[in-house]
Write a structure and sequence with these properties.
Blueprint lengths: L3 H19 L5 H4 L6 E6 L10 H16 L5 E6 L6 E7 L5 H8 L2 H9 L4 E6 L2 E7 L10 E7 L7 H14 L6 E6 L2 E7 L5 H19 L4 E6 L2 E7 L22 H37 L1
Antiparallel strand pairs: 1-4, 2-3, 3-5, 4-5, 6-9, 7-8, 8-10, 9-10
Helix pairs in contact: 1-8, 6-7
Length: 298
């Protein structure tokens, strides 16, 4: 059996290691929810001419109204200013975000707009969980079916059945948009769609169907895709091992088919912490046994 001095040294080392593990900072992936990840930015080329600061004041008021409403609803549209200085704007959160998550998402957008766009006559910034836009009076409008952004990820390596699964899931999505937000899955494909909050049911269905057709035509056999039109967006993801069961408390589920990496660090930390805890108990028992043995020797 080791000497008490060696046991004390080993015990001190384990206590130090355990204390450091217990106070390890939360990794960035935990601190920044996936729904605040930037998807795209759209900035008008023309900057605001604002020598008197009237536009800045109206824009600040607009942002304040949008942020305050984001704790109560997942869509809000308003205007500030008057005449030529009128600015209209809106925000929308993904339909499965809680009020708290919606507020946290939307509150980041004015800062991002300023950082990414400056102060143009119109701007739109989309995060995974929400977006915000504003337009100064007179800004040229675009069709609600115009595509703003798309991304196609990965290529199908799961065999010929993938495209049939995807198309079946997307077909169900196109038929289920009565409430403006809908998610569903078919076998290993998960799909999500959402329309702008003030879009009528018929226009919403047409917009989503157009986005579905765009994803099929332009993303081909990609195993995941996001397609954003002006008034709606859709996304789909393929999970070779089956669509994971969604947690009702998590707004970040299904954001990526390869989202298991964030849990690896947690698992390692739990295992390592458990091992240190067991080691600590063993050392204590050894130390106590050594003391008892010395006591018996006396």
């Amino acid at each position: 059996m080791g000497s008490p001095t060696k046991l004390y040294s080993l015990l001190s080392l384990l206590l130090l290691l355990f204390a450091n593990l217990d106070h390890t900072p939360i990794p960035p992936a935990e601190a920044a929810p996936a729904y605040t990840t930037l998807v795209y930015k759209g900035c008008a080329k023309q900057a605001l001419s604002d020598p008197t600061g009237v536009y800045s004041q109206a824009l600040s008021s607009l942002f304040g109204s949008l942020i305050s409403q984001s704790s109560k609803a997942n869509f809000f549209k308003t205007t500030t200013g008057s005449g030529q200085t009128t600015i209209s704007g809106l925000f929308q959160c993904r339909g499965d975000l809680s009020n708290v998550d919606c507020y946290n998402c939307v509150s980041k957008l004015p800062i991002l707009i300023d950082k990414l766009c400056g102060q143009p006559t119109a701007a739109r910034v989309q995060l995974l969980g929400c977006y915000m836009l504003y337009e100064v009076a007179g800004f040229a409008q675009i069709s609600g079916l115009d595509m703003i952004y798309k991304t196609c990820s990965g290529k199908n390596d799961g065999g010929s059945g993938f495209e049939q699964m995807r198309d079946t899931a997307l077909s169900a999505l196109g038929n289920g948009m009565s409430n403006g937000f809908y998610t569903t899955s078919y076998q290993s494909v998960y799909v999500l769609g959402q329309c702008e909050g003030d879009l009528g049911t018929s226009d919403c269905a047409n917009c989503v169907k157009s986005a579905v057709q765009r994803s099929q035509a332009e993303c081909g056999s990609s195993i995941s895709a996001q397609v954003y039109l002006d008034k709606c967006f859709i996304s789909y993801s393929y999970y070779p091992n089956g669509v994971p069961r969604r947690s009702s408390s998590s707004a970040d589920s299904f954001s990526s088919p390869s989202g298991s990496g964030q849990n690896t660090g947690k698992t390692v930390a739990i295992i390592l912490g458990g091992a240190v805890g067991v080691g600590f108990v063993v050392i204590c028992l050894m130390f106590a046994r050594n003391l008892l043995k010395k006591h018996d020797d006396f």
